[in-house]
Amino acid sequence: MGMHGSASALQVEKPREKDALPGDSQFAHRNLTYTIYALALATAISIWFIAIRAPLWIDETGGYWQICAGFSQIWPRHFVTLSSPEHAFILWFSTKLIGTSEVALRIPSLIAMLGAVYALYLAARELFDRDIAIIAAIVFCLHPVIVFESIDARPYAFGALMVNFTILILLRLRNNNSNWLAALFGIAAGCIVWFQDLFVVILPALVICFFVVKNCDRKTLWRQFGIALSAFMLAFLPVIPIMLFLVRTSKTHVVELSPTPADLLRLFAPGWLIVGVCVTGFIAFLMHASGRQRNSSNRLEPSHLLICASLAFIPSLFLYGVSVETSVHPFLPLRHCLDAIPGIALCWAFILSRVGSRILRLLFMVSLVAVTAFFQFSSPLARLHNPSWRDALQYAEKNASTDQAPVMICSEFPESDFVTMPVDSAKSSKLFSPLSYYKVSVPVIPMPRELNDEAIRIGSSFLHEAAGKHERFLVLARRSSDKTLDWLTQIAAATYSVRQLGELDGVVVLEFVPRQSNAL
Predict the structure, then answer these.
(1) What is the reported pLDDT for 285?
(2) Are 43 and 373 within 8 A, CB to CB?
(3) Are residues 409 and 301 part of one domain?
């Protein structure tokens, strides 16, 4: 009997051990899943660093120009650049701590974008399960606009941070009747426009979402809305004069052509995302054929869909409509629609939340990161941030400094076509901001971007003076100034021989040598 009792006890204990195994296995599986998610997120963020050492492009040098004259000149120069003074103060303070190298100038934007990713993850957690929230953060990180702006020494990353922070506060207001939280929502919404004026188009979406998310009585709803609106107006007041000026001078800032439906598709579904959808769709078909069951606990929430769609479509379609129907084209470049990308990431997260299999969602995310990382790390173009004047200016300095030959430069800014050229102060002018960072010691003759009356006046006067001195000189310009280059070559043909020394990162370098000097 004793032996029989012992055997019975063992038989009772064994099922308990077996019952414990599935729980341990599930815990280990969950840990493995989130480890994969963490590695995928880290890989997505690592893509940002590929071009962090690239030279500054024209707009980044414009940001450096705003701070290079010292703290006291940041506010006055803000009215010239029409850029964010808040970002300029942050950038100036950062340079005092870590220097003014290309990498150092981009560190503040990198930190701000990391904060934006975290804020979006927290916002997505208010709507979805943890794995869906991580996917939203990864889709956000991988978007080409985010990859570009994460290391761009300009205000866009801070704008993204404020957009995502505002969305987070908005979603936490859902079941919170705090007046302070409502005021914080209004202030955060107003601060969005501090960093990029075009982000004003997300405000209607935020208002719609406020009324959608609130779960309270009507009195509390309108009290919080009134507090948020009052706080927003206080935060918004400083940018009203700048926005009015931009409206009056909108045509002087137009660079891009009117967008096409393909541009709109690129915003909502970049190429790597299409590949990920195709791969996952094929796997989903195989899983469905094999009879795999759904294991998702996500429920369909129509309000969630309305929130995600409003944040994605309202700001982007508004800019697209203005660009198509008017002569002003704010939709392009796509970074102008950065405020819609958090909503786009949330839309993709909502779509993934309707996929029943957690394994399939994991495979979708892994395929996205793998495809994007492969092409980014293997492409030489990924190491280029944007065309820069650095190589052309350094070449001109080396070529012209021996005999102090003047260098004629056509500005890349469209605003240069509407103002008088700063002949005596070109090196300190915002229109020639690359010279504030990549310096040259030789004289500089400033020219507008387009061939207009100002360009003809300055070019004719300089050519007459240079020909009288038998003086060699260089001309630097982008292809947008080809008409000016052709005109200079034509009118100088009688007294100068012209040859192209090269085209460095899109900047054409021409050398004008006096014919008399050649004869001697």
Answers:
(1) 55
(2) yes
(3) no
Same domain, 287 and 312: yes
CA proximity to 110, closest of 174, 176, 158: 158
Q: State how far Cα 116 lies from the chain centre.
A: 12
Token pair belonging to 126? 């208010």
Orientation angle between helical segments 85-98 and 74-81, nearest 10 degrees: 130
What is the tens place of the pLDDT at every residue in 35-57? 999 999 999 999 999 999 999 99
Q: 81's torsion region: left (phi>0), alpha (psi -120 to 50) or beta? A: alpha
Q: Residue 246's pLDDT is what?
A: 66
Contacts of 288 (CB under 8 A, 6+ apart): none
What is the torsional sign of CA 221, 223, 225, 228?
negative
SS (H, E, C) 267-330: HHCCHHHHHHHHHHHHHHHHHHHCCCCCCCCCCCCHHHHHHHHHHHHHHHHHHHHHHHHCCCCC
- Compute the C-alpha angle 237/241/243, nearest 5°: 95
Q: Which domain holds residue 212?
A: 28-382
DSSP per position, 467-512: HHHT--EEEEEEGGGHHHHHHHHHHTTTTEEEEEEEEETTEEEEEE
Write down the number of H helices and E strands in the chain.
Answer: 22, 5
Q: How many CA atoms lie within 13 A of 32 on its CB side?
A: 8
Residues 344, 422, single domain; the answer is: no
- State the pLDDT at residue 255: 59
Q: What is the dihedral of CA 139, 145, 151, 154, to 10 degrees?
A: -130
Q: Is 344 within 8 Å of 307 (Cβ atoms)? A: no
How far apart are the C-alpha atoms of 157 and 142, rounded to whole Å? Answer: 14
Question: Is residue 342 located within the same domain as residue 399?
Answer: no
Flag whether 227 is in a domain: yes
CA distances from 336 to 153, 167, 201, 286, 478 (A): 15, 18, 10, 40, 23
Question: Residue 54 and residue 57: Cα distance in Å, rounded?
Answer: 9
- CA dist., res. 264 & res. 144, Å (int): 14
* Domain of residue 509, CATH code: 3.40.50
Alpha helices in 339-496 (DSSP H): 341-353, 358-378, 390-400, 434-437, 453-469, 482-491
Residues 167 and 297 in one domain: yes
In a domain, 336, yes or no: yes
Q: Which of 402, 413, 405, 397 is nearest to 477 (CA)?
A: 413
Which residues of the chain register pLDDT less than 50? 1-21, 290, 293-294, 517-520
Number of domains in the chain: 2
**pTM (2 decimals)?**
0.89
Dihedral angle, C-alpha 195, 391, 480, 250, nearest 10 °: 10
| Number of C-beta neighbours around residue 230 at 10 A | 13
Instruction: Judge if 56 and 198 occupy the same domain.
Output: yes
Q: Rounded to the nearest 5°, which phi and psi values hold at 477?
A: -160, 155
Residue 10 in any domain: the answer is no
What whole-number distance in Å separates Cα of residue 131 and Cα of residue 450? 52
